[in-house]
Amino acid sequence: MTVMTGRLGRVGALVLTLAFAVSSRATAQTSDELFNPDSLQRIDLWLNSADWSKLKAAFQENTYYPADMTWNGPDRETEYSRQIQIVDMMISRHVDAIAISAADDRALVAPLERARRAGIPVTIFDSAVNLEDYVSLIATDNQGAGVTAANLIAGLLPRGGKIAMLMQRPGGTSTELRERGFAETITRDFPNLNIVARMYGLGDSAKSMAEAENILTANPDLVGFFASSEAASIGAIRALRARGLAGKVKLVTLDVSEIHVAALRDGTVDVMLVQDAFKIGYEAVKSLSDKLTGKTPQRRLDIPAKAVYKADLDKPEIQALLHPRFAQKK
User: Fold this and answer.
1) pLDDT band per the 50, 70, 90 thresholds, residue 45
2) How far is residue 249 from each of residues 233, 241, 256, measured CA to CA in Å?
3) If residue 125 lies in a helix (H) or strand (E), which one and from where to where?
């Protein structure tokens, strides 16, 4: 089996595009056969985020995985023009299938429509695209994650007060859904909490830190932050530490990195919502393998995010979620 790991959402929206070719000589019938060398010829992965470095390491560690991989991609997840070039390159190479986590839900529509006209099936994972002609959409239940984040911060702040949202960027479907779920739930269910600021960090941790500090300056009585992406979370973590407010202003984050984990351990982060990137990646590849071998993949799969507290960090199931590894074939 194959899996992709990392921040889905950064996985804000991840910018990872996957293409593979399946031989017509064999049809995979079971998960063990799914990535048999006679069935799967090659996977080419383009990725832009350091958060997905775990993915590359996991593939390299998996000695039985029969693939030659190429790694390349834009430096930033906001570079949708580079992702368009990558998709067009895949079309010109006549790959058999594409799985994509889109940098922008509108900008990627035209290139993916070109792929479909060329007869290439497309699975969308992590961040949706305004496209109807796809095999599967596999992602975290992002709106549900935002609702969960709202309930978590409300539980941390029973007396209410001023809170702020540090957001990713306009146009990223996954993070916009998280932010909408959070804001709607706070407004509807928790009248004692007042969202006094909603600022974008544009997928940049330094800008996110600057925006978080601006919010703190304008609202010295702020009691909580929700950060909807990895970059936003890191910016909030650094701002709270710089202002000496770590552990004083409540912080709920979404996505994961070593910085997140360290901040959860030292009390800067109160709750960390983590996506199951391992499962999302596996299901994305499996959907296309199923499609190419004559099966009917599930059209949509929503995967819930997991709330992780400091006390949970050393539990085996949380370690498996944070540091997934390929199952080793015996």
Assistant:
1) very low
2) 13, 10, 20
3) strand 122-125
The identity of residue 271, as a single letter, is: V
- SS3 assignment, position 324: coil
Amino acid symbol at 279: K
Alpha helices in the chain (DSSP H): 31-34, 53-61, 80-92, 109-117, 142-156, 173-189, 205-218, 230-242, 258-266, 277-292, 316-322
For the chain, domains (ranges, CATH) are 16-140+276-303 (3.40.50.2300), 142-255 (3.40.50.2300)
CA distance 327 to 306: 21
Q: What is the pLDDT of residue 197?
A: 98
Contact between residue 308 and residue 273 where contact means Cβ atoms under 8 Å apart: yes
- 138 touches 280 (CB < 8 A): yes
Structure confidence at residue 78 (pLDDT): 62
The Cα 230–Cα 253 span in angstroms is 8
Alpha-carbon span 327 to 315, nearest angstrom: 19
By the 8 A CB rule, do 37 and 47 touch?
no
Residue 16: closest CA among 71, 68, 81: 71
Mention every residue, 6+ apart, whose C-beta is less than 8 A from residue 219.
162, 164, 196, 197
Measured over all CA atoms, what is the biggest interatomic distance in the chain, rounded to whole angstroms? 66
Helix and strand element counts for the chain (H, E) = 11, 13
Give the number of other CB atoms < 10 A from CB of residue 316.
7
Answer yes or no: are the C-beta atoms of 48 and 132 closer than 8 Å: no
- Three-state DSSP at 76 gives coil
pTM: 0.76
